[in-house]
Design goal:
The protein has 3 domains: 9-83; 86-145, no CATH class; 147-187. It is built from 8 helices and 5 strands; from the N terminus they run E-H-H-E-E-H-H-H-E-E-H-H-H. The chain has helices spanning 20-23, 27-38, 65-78, 89-96, 100-108, 136-145, 147-194, 201-206, and strands spanning 12-17, 49-52, 55-60, 117-121, 128-132. The termini are far apart.
């Protein structure tokens, strides 16, 4: 007896496991790859491609065979060389477990080289934003080499040195102010003493001849 078809669930299904070198162990990176490939699909088909664990999955009704074949072809082609897809800010922060502040600091001082910039339009808005992207191979090297921990130690040492210098500067400024105040007080006392034993000094001052 032939198996009867049901209307429960999709009839057509395809799956593409994402290579570990592409995701770099990051769920955020995997979601980024999904969004990147969705952007290459027709608008009506984008939500049909989804992420399940570490794989992209496509599910469609059996009546959509032509569309299914087309979308499957686009996804397969888009995944060729996906390991080289530039890493965007939120992805590198998740992969390296760093904060936005650390990313910006290391980007600014040159420790984290930029691989260029990317401009996108925010969803539902006319405004565009431009941000730096990063070479995935460099990110992989940083992840495997423990470089981030070294940078953090360097930052701690630099912060401590900056605090020490600031404390010395504050102490020096206070000392200079104290010395200047003492010198001013001593000068005034000298001026007062200079006229203490002179005849008619008070009269000179009273008549305004010293002003």
């Amino acid at each position: 007896m032939p198996k009867q078809k049901t209307n429960e669930g999709p009839e057509l299904f395809n799956q593409w496991p994402l290579p570990p070198k592409a995701t770099l162990g990051s769920a955020v990176r995997a979601k980024g790859i999904l969004l990147e490939i969705r952007a290459r699909l027709p608008a009506a088909s984008r939500k049909l491609l989804d992420l399940d664990g570490g794989s992209l999955v496509l599910a469609m009704p059996e009546t959509s065979k032509t569309e299914f074949r087309f979308v499957s072809g686009v996804v397969s082609q888009a995944l060729v060389g996906i390991e080289g897809l530039a890493v965007i800010p939120r992805e590198i922060q998740d992969i390296l477990t760093i904060s936005a502040t650390e990313r910006l600091r290391w980007l600014t001082d040159g420790r984290l080289p930029s691989a260029g910039t990317r401009t996108v339009r925010l969803a539902g808005r006319a405004k565009k934003i431009t941000f730096h992207v990063f070479d995935p191979r460099l990110v992989e090297e940083l992840l495997d080499g423990g470089t981030v921990d070294e940078w953090r130690e360097d930052d701690k040492a630099m912060a401590a040195e900056n605090r020490r210098r600031a404390a010395l500067k504050t102490k020096l400024t206070r000392s200079l102010k104290t010395a200047a105040k003492r010198q001013s007080t001593a000068g005034k006392a000298t001026d007062d003493n200079e006229g203490a034993g002179l005849s008619g000094w008070e009269e000179f001052g009273r008549d305004g001849l010293l002003g």
